[in-house]
Amino acid sequence: MSNDERIELAELLFPNIKHDRNYYENMYPERKLKEGAMVTRFGPSPTGFVHMGSLFGSFCDSVFAKQSNGIFYLRIEDTDQKRSIENGIDGIFSDLDAFDIVPDESSIVGGEYGPYIQSERTEIYQTYVKDLIIRGYAYPCFMTEEEIAAIREEQEINKTKLGIYGVYAVDRDLSLGEIKEKLNNSEEYVIRLKSPGNSKNEVEFIDLVKGKIKFPENDMDLVLLKKDGTPTYHLAHVIDDHLMHTTHVIRGDEWVSSIPLHIQLFDILGFDRPQYVHTAPITKKDDGGIRKLSKRKDPEAKVSYYDEVGIPIDAVKLYLATILNSNFEEWYLNNSEKSIDDFTFSFDKMAVGGTLFDLDKLNNISKTYFSRKSGEDVYNETLAWANKHDLEYAKLLEENKDDMIKFLSIEKDGPRPRKDIAKYSDVKEEFSYAIDSMFIEENYAKNESNKVYDINLVLDYINNYLDLNVTNEEWFNKVREFAVENGYAATPKEYKKNPDDYKGHVGDICEAIRVMITGRMKSPDLFSIMRVLGKSRILDRIDLYSKIYK
Ligand code: GLU
Predict the structure, then answer these.
(1) What separation in Å is there between the alpha carbon of 349 and the centre of ligand 1?
(2) Binning pLDDT at 50, 70 and 90, where does residue 18 land?
């Protein structure tokens, strides 16, 4: 086809496209950002909610943009109607909002590079495709589904590469006359790339996580515009990331194999290529193996799960930071005053294979997170959570505010703060002794020990020895004295040396007191708990215990 014929064809196919590509190039000029600033984007399909994999992706996008003083924007990729659901966009915004991942530009907050919804950009895509037709890099393809299926069958039999390329791209060289005839017959068509590639050549590109990758050049005439005139992912990706000036395309590594096509499109459109960062899928251990985290099988794949079970959003983000960069966790453990914003993330510390998502590890991170919060903060956050998920407990928390804060503040100071809470719901369980009305007989039934303790001995101690207005050390010395006077060893070590000489050791007496007043074998510092309770409530609890075990 001659140049003039291609111009005629372009007009015939796109009579309504009045602008040329320069119009858009001028409309979306280079961003004025400092050297090194990254422009990243999150491009979800409007499926109604964000799952863990895409939350992780958007988290990467936002941290890299933020730490380089760049821009992180959100682009709704709704070109595939099958994947879109009604109101699907709202769910994405609310999930990101819950995690405080805030795009600088989006269809909600706007921005200079919009529209930020692909279905509103059809004219832009068509403008560039019209240009490709004129330059001989695209053509209308009238093949029917049946014809394509027949080609596939033939390729399968001949064991050749599948797809529309070379001799199989039968509409590649139709004359203008032939095309006009088909158009007059109202035959349906897509617009395909007229690939200039040769699969015998190699293309090479650097992925910032995976390193140098080599592929055969793309020689497939892939679809650019579908029958309804909307773009495929490939075309939309290239045009949008060019016009929106994305510097770093961070996306799942299922797209790596499309790279030869994408690079080719950037090149023939005359666009600078962006940097690519392909992230490994989020995986989990299952049945001895490792598999992808699944929306269907794994409740933790849905981001609403964390709020439901009571894992703080900030703890989840700390965990995302941990799986994003292999050196984050150690840094976080060694820098108790710092937050995620103080850490500098890098691409070379990202996982190349799978990124293992491990709920136990998340729990540990969350415990560290809670351990660094004051008792009052833990109280306030737990109350806010309970107000949404456990109203009965919320009421009790409000009625017992002062005590609760005192209990939650035990063992917070010092180099190794308490690490017993991983989620808000744990507070109810771990501090079941903190609220009198919750401290009922069943508490003892939950106690892991089957031992029955000496009530009179404990009563004697509480009534005649316990002084709550002393230091922890003075208190313990006194317990020790009491132990020795009653035939118990002063230390476990002494007891072990001559077990027959003693009834037990000082720790056994503490255990008896602990079980009677908390219903538990393990608790935070016993003396601190006794101080919050006060003598009369301690005696009430021993009374309760004696009713059951007498
Ligand atoms: N819309 C694409 C998806 O949902 C996004 C891929 C990309 O970030 O380029 O997989």
Answers:
(1) 23
(2) very high
Whether the Cβ atoms of residue 99 and residue 321 lie closer than 8 Å to each other: no
State how far the Cα of 226 lies from the Cα of 144, in Å rounded to an integer: 13
Which residue's structure tokens are 């190699």?
A: 202
pLDDT tens per residue, range 309-319: 999 999 999 99
The verdict on residue 339 lying in a domain is no
In this structure, the residue with its CA closest to atom 7 of ligand 1 is: 251
Ligand 1 atom closest to Cα of 250? 8
Name the pTM for this structure: 0.88
* Ligand 1 midpoint to CA 221 (Å): 21
Indicate which residue's Cα is closest to atom 3 of ligand 1. 44
HSE at residue 299, side-chain half, CA atoms within 13 A, is 6
Asked, as a colleague might, if the bond just before 499 is cis with ω within 30 of 0, I would say no
Strand order from edge to edge, sheet including 289-292: 289-292, 282-286, 355-356
Looking from the CA of residue 83, the nearest atom of ligand 1 is 4
**Lowest-confidence pick of 111-125, 433-447, 516-530:** 433-447
> Residue 166's domain is classified under what CATH number?
3.40.50.620
| pLDDT at residue 550 tops 80 | no
> Of 246, 279, 312, which one is at a domain's C-terminal end?
279
Pocket test for ligand 1, best of 45, 119, 253, 262 (most atoms within 8 A of CB): 45
Q: Which residues pair with 193 in a beta bridge?
A: 138
Which residues have C-beta atoms less than 6 Å from ligand 1?
43-45, 77, 237, 251
What's the mean pLDDT when you consider all of the chain? Answer: 94
Residue 81, pLDDT score: 72
Nearest atom (ligand 1) to Cα of 237: 9
- Closest ligand 1 atom to 241 CA: 9
Give the residue from 235, 245, 254 showing the smallest Cα distance to 275: 245
Atom in ligand 1 nearest the alpha carbon of residue 54: 4
**In this predicted structure, what is the pLDDT of residue 122?**
97
Domain of residue 246 covers 3-21+122-279
Ligand 1 centre distance from Cα of residue 43 (Å)? 5
Note the pLDDT tens digit of each residue in 37-47.
999 999 998 87
- Strands across the sheet containing 138-141: 138-141, 190-193, 223-225
Determine, yes or no, domain membership for 85: no
Structural domain count of the chain = 2
Give dist(CA 53, CA 290) in Å, integer: 16
Give, using CA atoms, the residue closest to atom 10 of ligand 1. 44
